[in-house]
Amino acid sequence: MSSSGRCWKHTGFNPTLFLLPTVIRFNFKGITLKVVGIIGGPKLDGNTYKLVRAVLDGALDAGHTVVTWKLRDIYIGHLGYFADELIPPIDDFEKMKADLESMGALVIGSPVWYGHVDTRTFNFINRTYVYNKHYSEENAKKWPKAKAVNVLTYGREEEDAYDNILDWYKMVWDNYGMTESINIVAAGTGDNPVEDRPELIERAKEIGRSL
Ligand SMILES: Cc1cc2nc3c(=O)[nH]c(=O)nc-3n(C[C@H](O)[C@H](O)[C@H](O)COP(=O)(O)O)c2cc1C
Questions:
Q1: Ligand 1 centroid vs 33 CA: distance in angstroms?
Q2: What is the value of pTM for the model shown?
Q3: Which end of the chain has fewer CB atoms surrounding its CB within 10 Å, N or C?
């Protein structure tokens, strides 16, 4: 009986609802990661968003915590240079730092724009230079040894059309000491959008579940 003299069953309070979030946070490996999703392309119903979302859904299935940053909604400035020093801009990257420094996995999604990642993603990657050991040994220690998942969507039909971009991602992540660089691409999105490809969406979810 509660202090008001009524059993909790009659008060609408159900302790199992409080326990549930705790229970589902344990995945089969017993490790809960913070998974940071970054959407570079500007569309919120586009191919890139849907494929990143699928990876993050898989991560949620596995009990991980997911945080999403949409680059179109924030301002990431450009690195400057003055008096022999690289000058980081004052921008929203500062707000992302806590998530980046505590992540166990980074899921970064970009459409291909003129043969490379879209401009927001490219600028974001350059902005992470403040964690590069050449910029600051101290900052470099704060970048976690996390896994990277590179999500790339594009119009060309060939599955290997932009392997050079995936190699470039790996070079960047290796530089930051990240442990894995996992790729998933959606080629030919003009005729074959992500939403019509359940097997691709399932593959993306499986990547998320296996983080
Ligand atoms: C500005 C621009 C440039 C593009 N350049 C390329 C390209 O070089 N190669 C390619 O295969 N597709 C290119 N595309 C097509 C997109 O990569 C493709 O439609 C992508 O899946 C869009 O993703 P979204 O739906 O998330 O915006 C381009 C699209 C835009 C808007």
A1: 31
A2: 0.88
A3: N
Q: Please give the single-letter amino acid code of residue 189.
A: T
Burial profile 171-206: b = 16 or more Cβ within 10 angstroms, e = fewer: ebbebbebeebbbbbbbbbeeeebeebeebbeebbe
User: How does pLDDT run across 2-56, given as a tens digit for each residue?
Assistant: 444 344 344 455 554 444 444 344 455 678 999 999 999 999 999 999 999 999 9
Ligand 1 site, residue 153, Cβ cutoff 6 A: yes
Phi-psi region of 37 (alpha: psi -120 to 50; beta: other; left: phi over 0): beta
Q: How far, in Å, from the CA of 168 to the mean position of ligand 1?
A: 18
Query: In the chain, what are the domain boundaries?
Result: 7-209
pLDDT at position 27, please? 54
Class of the CATH-defined domain 7-209: alpha beta
